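Hey, I'm writing a tutorial for new members on how sequence and structure tokens pair up, and I'd like a real worked example in the thread rather than a made-up one. If someone can provide the structure for the chain below, I'll link this post from the tutorial.
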Amino acid sequence: MCGIVGVIAPARSLGPETISRMVRAISHRGPDDCGFERLQSGGSDIWLGNTRLAILDLSSAGHQPMTDPERANWIVYNGEVYNYREIRKDLEGRGINFQSDTDTEVILKAYGEFGPDCVDRFRGMFAFAIWDSQRRELFVGRDRAGKKPLYYYPTREGLFVFASEIRAILASDLVPRRLDAASVEVFLTNGFSVSPKTMVAGVRSVMPGHWLRVRTDARIAEEACYWSLPRSKYLSNGDKMLSRFREELSDAVQMRLVSDVPLGAFLSGGLDSSTICALMKGKESDLRTFSVGFQETDFDESKYSRWVARRFQTQHTEVVLSKMDFFDLLPAALGGMDQPTFDGLNTFCVAQAARKSGLKVALSGTGSDELFGGYPFFDWVRWLAKTRPLVRLLPDPWSRSLSDFFIKKSTNGLSGIMKVAELLDGHEGSAEDYLIAAYQTTQTLFPPWARRKLFFGRKPEDLQDLKLGLPREFLVSLQSEIQGEDPVSSISKIAWRLFLGERCLKDTDTMSMAVSLEVRSPFVDHVFVTSALEFSGRLRSKGVPNKPVLQQTVRPVLGDDYPLRKKQGFTFPFRYWLRDLHRWDYFHEVTKDKHLYEAVGLGIRPVQGLFDSFFQGRSYIPWSRIWAIFVLLSWCKRHRMSL
């Protein structure tokens, strides 16, 4: 697990201080080692840099950038390929020799043998860049789910900059600190940025399951999608489904136990984390588990995590987080955010506890809910999607008029009538569009009318690349993956790509790596995911949101005495804690800065009105809206960003 950076630039146009700044900016991702190399090809320099968190082969043989002396290729790599020993055995059978026991070297030599097709063999989470000395190009790849981030900045001036985090790209001083207006709109819609756009104008994210080939003139020669979500093909046969899920989930967990350092697990006591803990305990005799508890009993799950810890005899650490503790850790948590997000603080807290105990690796139950219908919005979206036949009968002016009427009559921005109004406000499009619109309507942070009021800095041309609050490139990819699917499978895929991929996995990586901890997620294993999605959504996602199919799958592992209960979800008592946010000096430093509002394009009066309504309790304002605005302003102030 590491952080990677790199630059393609005209020869002798950059000195080592540029790449050194980039490496230092992400030193938290790899405090064990670091390095960079300058390579030359014609009239270009290729700089590669790395920070290392040593997990496999702790010796200096794992130092990066790493070279293949036989082919003169170089690699910088972030992640874990869990089946690297299997791939290595195949390569050794082809006469290829190795100098280390790292997966880094396996990736490098697999590329030398198979070229871009090497990614099809990798099972894990990864983002890497390989300099191909023969083809004189950079090969850049990202894992299927998007667990490991990878950002790049292409220009027409012979400059290509890439890194694991946005902050490293900004640290290069090669990229203007200009806010992307379309991404501000996406953030206000979703609460996070969505690939391939980022909050920095011109900086893009490599899409999950994609690779790039970049020439020495810094132009992208080719971009390809090497993996997409599979289509459903089994409408019945539940017995076959359960046995397959049990076997493949066990394999996914076992593969993620490969490590040369001790392993731990996040344990909330819920079904997902308990399952991972149980499967780990079968292989790990000395398992350490971590949970976060609260004084607010409505949110505290400590008794369940303690039960699981006793049941499987783990070394359990429980962190009880108070409101004062929360405010004490906020500066570090905000500093850990690479892009603004209204989520991720829960991961930061439990990751910090695990890292302070000396662990470098922890397993997590993230990724189950999207496959097995673990969110109430599965039913909400289906209900909204059923309005399409009626809406299609309405002439456009009528739907607009009804939308305006409902908005005026609704006082609660989250009520059902408001959701119908939002859907009526933009009902055009295909069946796939309508389903995505229904999903977005249930999940939207600020509805369209609120975004128009808050964000004065946007222009019509800024929104041309957006539809349904998403970048069009992302939307097109999503449309193709849900086309022809049953509604529940479609909702599952939308949630997997957007809620999981663009929110949960991105936040988990950023917030855990902020404290130098690697998090592995067996439920996101692409072999397991492929198997799960081959069964219809109606079959595997029934019983929303309590996941009875998963319960039946893992009951033999957890035991008959495991206390099954209604899904609660691992959430913080933010609605109580954030009532005191305005008592924090830094909150006022950020939210009273008039120049900052102007730079970001937010209206100070509507934002202050929102804050006043929340803190004074004059009307129902969700805490997530207050927190999201604050995080956006704070991030822009920290990174000196403006439109």
